[in-house]
Amino acid sequence: MAGINQHYSYFRSPFGDVIGLFANSQHYPRCRELELNVLDCTDVYGHKGLTKQCNLEYEDYLECLYNKKQKARVAAMQKERLRQYYAGERTKKDFYAEPPKLDSFYQTYGKSID
User: Fold this and answer.
1) What is the torsion angle, in degrees rounded to the nearest 10, for the CA atoms of residue 98, residue 102, residue 104 and residue 106?
2) Residue 10 · residue 54 · CB < 8 Å
3) Fewer Cβ atoms within 10 Å of its own Cβ: the N or the C terminal residue of the chain?
């Protein structure tokens, strides 16, 4: 399989084989394992199983590549923040949360647990 795609071509050509070398996510470390999981699933169920049996793995892989749910979540948070600002619940000063202090990550490990 040259790449993971819902639109599978039944005709093979040398051009498609060359493009298949670049049409993968193995160069992107975050999505490597997810792509291999989808490929393992399609090896078992075939390419037609991509939308049936392998749907969860395929959706996780697409989310890793395109971040659609993450971007929608950020947009919803920005919309809510603007709503609160226009309703008077937030001021211009506290529009965003206060950032953590500089080097606050390292100070937490310097304290004793006792």
Assistant:
1) 160
2) no
3) C
| Cα–Cα distance measured from residue 72 to residue 33, given in angstroms and rounded to the nearest whole number | 24
Question: pTM of the full predicted structure?
Answer: 0.68
pLDDT tens digit sequence for 78-113: 999 999 999 999 999 989 888 877 776 655 555 555
How many CB atoms are closer than 10 A to CB 46? 13
- Residue 83 identity (one-letter amino acid): R
